[in-house]
Write a sequence for this structure.
């Protein structure tokens, strides 16, 4: 229920009494839930604008209509307000604030620690001695970078471990073709391999010129010492780097290292595009789209920059913006980023020259993404509005979660959860639950366990589970809905829940509550939308159950061996990366695994080598 004129006048009166100092304001709805967090260097001016009669952006107007109370925090400086705003957004996960990817979901390139390091893809940054680069826009980009560096520098991509496997087997085909430096031959010292890894690290940081200079110096040193084969390898690597640079989109001089941020918005959505320029070339780009109810405008750009760079390992010294930023805000952002980066960071909006052209290019990229997004969203938003009306939902169903249960007899009982945000599948938020407390094939009890485990995380400060769904759909009927409604009543929650009912041919027929069915057969757009959700949650759940079954079958090939139970089988498979790795291991290597005795190792080796 929106606020009345009297309530609005009272909020405006309170806002006018605020001081003209920096601070952070927290907007709350009728239930006391935080729905928006913002900052300002003059609290009174900023907060009072919300409650004055005047033209507002459509999303801002929606947010203000839901505000029934606000609180605030006074800060001494703009940077203090900026830091506190970021902290509170992460703490409350407000409905109307922009949301970036969880730090956990970003992929990184990692150079592992040890005498012969490798380049691997990881989503988890651990407190170890490895070196992390990124994050990058997606795993496709990461694997492409790793593959390119391995081929360019001749780094190994096999599963052998060095120095453990040096000389144990004949060199692979890549080593024979000259595409790998061949540590397995024993002719590559740790020092020589370390030089290649140092070159890889320079390239990952975007220091292509530095890598070429180091290679050139090595080439001349090898030539003077009449190590002509080594000099030729350096020459070939320099040529490979030249070819790699030519394939990239070169937009600036070779020494240029900067990020370019472009912004575009209309009444429906907004986009920030970021181009990462290293060595004068665009090495990666990301688009951050904001639709639905989230407020994303030029005023929130400073918040975006701080949150965006808080998870990045490399922050350049220069960040270019396509839109101007007030001097005080810009200075606060620069101080925030400099503290994170460990060096001075300049944020500016160029007014002329090639950098202005670059900003215009990135801004036009953002505008095109907004245009495409709006074309796609027009259909989805219409469906969601009609779904809201049809089900008489209290809120626009921005985040929909759907659940299904799958099993083979009483084994591998699995619950799958998929997420639909703004009408689109958010696959990074998909999860599955291995049902633990249910004996047999009780669908109701399984659904209850899955939802109890998921909803228990609504109080989390971070992660996708902290996001409150606007609608929950269950692949089942009235009984499933009744069980989940009872669970939510016990947890003190009130989230709309509906079952997705199938006909005799296992096709979507209707939606249902505990008591009634709501036909969607004549609502073609809604019917198609629900059908897609039901098919997707079923596909995801069954695929996870099949994966669990395959893992069990793999373990069972070991558990049939004398002395090897389920825990020992898991330990062996984990240590060697799968059954083939266990088969290729020696008795000594098998016995080195924690929990595996020499007798166990002998039994496993003999059983797998009959």
């Amino acid at each position: 229920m929106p606020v009345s004129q009297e309530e609005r006048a009272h909020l405006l009166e309170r806002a006018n009494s605020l001081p003209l100092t920096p601070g952070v304001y927290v907007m709350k709805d009728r239930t006391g839930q935080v729905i928006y967090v913002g900052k300002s260097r003059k609290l009174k001016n900023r907060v009072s604008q919300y409650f004055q009669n005047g033209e507002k952006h459509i999303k801002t107007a929606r947010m203000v209509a839901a505000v029934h109370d606000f609180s605030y925090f006074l800060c001494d400086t703009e940077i203090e307000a900026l830091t506190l705003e970021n902290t509170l957004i992460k703490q409350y996960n407000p409905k109307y604030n922009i949301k970036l990817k969880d730090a956990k979901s970003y992929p990184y390139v990692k150079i592992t620690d040890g005498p012969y390091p490798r380049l691997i893809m990881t989503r988890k940054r651990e407190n170890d001695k490895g070196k992390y680069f990124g994050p990058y826009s997606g795993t496709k980009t990461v694997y492409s970078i790793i593959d390119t560096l391995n081929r360019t520098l001749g780094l190994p991509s096999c599963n052998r471990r060095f120095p453990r496997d040096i000389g144990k087997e004949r060199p692979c085909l890549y080593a024979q073709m000259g595409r790998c430096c061949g540590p397995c031959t024993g002719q590559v010292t740790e020092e020589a391999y370390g030089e290649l890894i140092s070159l890889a690290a320079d390239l990952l940081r975007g220091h292509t010129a530095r890598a070429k200079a180091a290679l050139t110096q090595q080439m001349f040193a090898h030539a003077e010492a009449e190590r002509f084969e080594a000099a030729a390898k350096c020459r070939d690597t320099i040529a490979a780097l030249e070819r790699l640079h030519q394939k990239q989109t070169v937009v600036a001089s070779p020494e240029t290292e900067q990020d370019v941020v472009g912004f575009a918005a209309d009444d429906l959505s907004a986009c920030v595009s970021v181009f990462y320029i290293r060595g004068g070339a665009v090495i990666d780009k990301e688009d951050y789209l904001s639709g639905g109810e989230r407020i994303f405008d030029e005023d929130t750009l400073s918040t975006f920059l701080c949150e965006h760079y808080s998870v990045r390992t490399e922050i350049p010294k220069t960040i270019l913006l396509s839109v101007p930023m007030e001097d005080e805000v810009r200075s606060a952002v620069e101080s925030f980023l400099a503290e994170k980066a460990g060096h001075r960071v300049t944020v500016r909006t160029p007014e002329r020259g090639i950098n202005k052209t670059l900003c215009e290019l990135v801004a036009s990229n953002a505008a095109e993404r907004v245009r495409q997004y709006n074309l796609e969203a027009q259909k989805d938003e219409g469906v969601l509005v009609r779904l809201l009306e049809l089900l008489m939902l209290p809120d626009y169903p921005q985040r929909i979660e759907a659940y299904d249960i799958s099993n083979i007899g009483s084994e591998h009982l699995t619950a799958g959860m998929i997420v639909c945000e703004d009408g689109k599948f958010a696959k990074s938020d998909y999860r599955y639950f291995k049902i633990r407390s249910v004996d047999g094939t009780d669908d109701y009890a399984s659904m209850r366990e899955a939802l109890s485990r998921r909803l228990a995380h609504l109080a989390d400060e971070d992660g996708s589970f902290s996001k409150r769904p606007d609608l929950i759909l269950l692949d089942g009927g009235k009984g499933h809905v009744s069980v989940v409604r009872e669970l939510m009543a016990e947890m003190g929650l009130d989230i709309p829940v509906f079952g997705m009912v199938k006909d005799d041919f296992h096709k979507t027929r209707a939606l249902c509550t505990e008591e009634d069915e709501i036909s969607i057969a004549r609502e073609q757009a809604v019917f198609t939308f629900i059908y897609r959700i039901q098919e997707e949650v079923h596909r995801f759940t069954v695929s996870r159950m099949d994966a669990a079954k395959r893992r069990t079958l793999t373990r069972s090939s070991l558990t049939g061996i004398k002395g090897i139970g389920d825990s020992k089988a898991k330990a062996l498979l984990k240590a060697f990366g799968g059954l083939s790795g266990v088969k290729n291991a020696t008795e000594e290597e098998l016995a080195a695994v924690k929990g595996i005795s020499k007798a166990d190792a002998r039994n496993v080796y003999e059983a797998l080598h009959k």
Observations:
- The two ends are 74 Å apart (CA to CA).
- Residues 105-249 form one domain.
- The chain has five domains: 5-92, 105-249, 258-373, 399-549, 560-608.
